[in-house]
Amino acid sequence: MNKLKFSSGMHLFIIITSIIIAVGLAMGLAFHFTSGTFFNWGGDYSSYRTVEVRYSVHEIEEKDVMEACDAAFEENGVDYISYVTSGMSTESRIEYRFTASQDPDALAKAAEAINDEVGIASDRTGYATAYVDLNARFNSNKDIMYAGIAVAAVVVFQFIYFVIRYKLTMAAAAFIGDVHNLALFYALLAITRVQVASSVVALSVFVVVLTMIGCGLLFEKMRKSFRTDEFKEMPSFEQVDAASKAAFSTVTTLNAGILAAAAIMLVLTAIIGGTAFGLLMPCVCALIAAAVCEYGTMFFVPSVYSRLKLRADRYAAQKAVKYVGAKKAEKAEQQ
Questions:
Q1: How far apart are CA 154 and CA 101, in angstroms?
Q2: N or C: which end of the chain has fewer CB within 10 A?
Q3: pTM
Q4: Domains (ranges, CATH) in the chain?
């Protein structure tokens, strides 16, 4: 731990971040033109068509229905982006979602094939019927707008709070950290093709809040350390390194706890299966968010802040020299 130099690798960290963001931008643009989405938008954000299959739980098993649906979709050359299951004691439902650009005729033929394969005469208690909605559904993205407003509000609040409680240089470093972590988070979402849904969009606010907490712990260590004369006499880079090392265990424990919780949820999701499918993407995003905040807060922010602090210290020293010189000149004139 004592050998870690948090403030010495700014150029390396900028290169690493730039490469990841560039790759994410390239992949996002490529998928934007080939698949119609920059991110892998979830069903509640994209425009989509549906094929809904309802069946009697007393006569047909879900596994058989899904196998028949998969075969019908493959035979007609259509691929669904997601599916949602629901049901009651007598009837269950599977809704398959397709991109709005999917061929309506192919979907209609797939629905007919599903009915031919698993459909049962209506005069029996058991049945399986496929309904197809050929009209694309266009969802409003107001919650994305609200999430963007929330992120901007949190960033502005953090900047003002850090200026009041700490210093302008610390507030500037935290602001740069917010922008850095958000850009890195979005780039990794584009690279991993995580489905962006409402719960995932909310994690953007989570990234900013987690960055704020990490930066607050870091700068609080510096503020308390400045009470000692020994710390004041240290060079700027050594001061930042000392504070970073002091805050490292706390920040890492926080992020590790989030990583562990998300990993446990992923394992449970894998064990439970399809019924917990909605938890998969938020858990993956939580893993990405925690990793990004650990890297951004404990490595990138100290390296940036050390440069800002060095310039501020030099400016303060030059200002002090000018002030002392002016005082001496004024005193000489009076004599």
A1: 37
A2: C
A3: 0.69
A4: 10-36+141-316 (1.20.1640.10), 48-137 (3.30.70.260)
